[in-house]
C-alpha cells in the first residue's frame, strides 16, 4: 500500500504543485491520478520513487516513509514507465528490458531469459529482441517500456501517461494488455493520465485532482460517474456521463426474444417489421423486413453477462430494427434484445438506486 499523508510539494519558485494530498493506493490495485494539465499528477507520482522529494508530509510504502529509504534501494522495488517509453536508443530491445536485472547483478544468461519471457508476456514477437528502439512502432516501444519496468518483478509500478503518444486503436490495445497483465500480476500501480476515459477504464480507484494539487474526489469509477462531488468533477467527467454510467450496468438477466429469427432464404410471411436472418449454425446474417424483401441490413451484437448495457444500447443503434443481437462467445445468436426490454431493464436498475448494483467492470 502506498499512502500519501498530507503531502505538499512547493517548488523553489514558490509554485505549490501538490497541496496536502492524502490518499491510499491499495496493494494490488490500479489507482489513477487524473486531472487537467498542471494539477500536480506527475509531481505526485515522482514523489513516490523520490525523483522529487516532498516539502511537507509523508509518503509511506507499506507503512515506511520513503524519505527514510535511499533512492536506489527504493527504486529497485518500483517499476517506472513514461510517455514514449524512454528506451535507451543504442541498446537492443532485449538489453533495454534486461537493464534493471543487470544492474541488480543478475548474470547475463538469466537476465536475457527474463527479458525474452517478458517480451512474450507483453505480446511482442521474440524476433523483436535483436532490434533497436527506432525499428519499432510507438505502440511496440510502449510495450517494451512496460516489459522493462516489470523485468525485476517490482511490487509497485508507476506509469506516467504511458499510452498518450500512440493512436487511439493502439492505445486501446495497450490498455487491454495492461489489464490482462494486471489480472495475472496484481501489482500496486499508480497511473497518471489526463484522459478521464482511460482513468475509468483502468482504475480500481480514481483520484481526480484540481489545479493547485488538491484532491477533488477519490472513488471507484462507478461511484465517480454516479456521484461526482462538485461541479469541477462533474464537468471533468464530461457531458456523456449518463451514457458512460451504463458501462457498469450488467446485461445479465436481460430478456432475450428468440422468436424474431428466421433462416436464410426467408421469403416473407411474418407480420413483424424486422426479423434477424441466421445461418443454419446460428450465426446472424442481418435484419430483413417482415416481407423478406431486400438485402440483409447491418446488425449490432453484445454478449449477455459479459458486455455492459452500454454495449447493448450501442448495438441497438447500429441496426434498423432498433434491436441488439445477443451472441455467445463463438458469435452465435442467442436471441434479440429490443429497445423496450433495454429500457425496462434500465428503469429497474435505476429504481434500485443506480448502477452500483453491478459488480462488472467495463473491461471484463
Ligand atoms: N521544477 C519545477 N519548478 C517549478 N514549478 C514546477 C516544476 N515542475 C512542475 N512545476 C509546476 O507544478 C505544477 C504541477 O506540475 P505537474 O507536472 O506535476 O502537473 P501535471 O498534472 O503532471 O501536468 P501535465 O498533465 O501537463 O503533465 C505546474 O504548475 C507546473 O508548472
UniProtKB/TrEMBL annotation:
InterPro entries: AAA+_ATPase (IPR003593), ABC_transporter-like_ATP-bd (IPR003439), ABC_transporter-like_CS (IPR017871), P-loop_NTPase (IPR027417). GO terms for molecular function: ABC-type quaternary ammonium compound transporting activity; ATP binding; ATP hydrolysis activity. Residues 2-237 form the ABC transporter domain. SMART domains: AAA. Its EC number is 7.6.2.9. Keywords: ATP-binding, Nucleotide-binding, Transport. The keyword ATP-binding applies. Signal peptide: none annotated. This is ABC-type quaternary amine transporter.
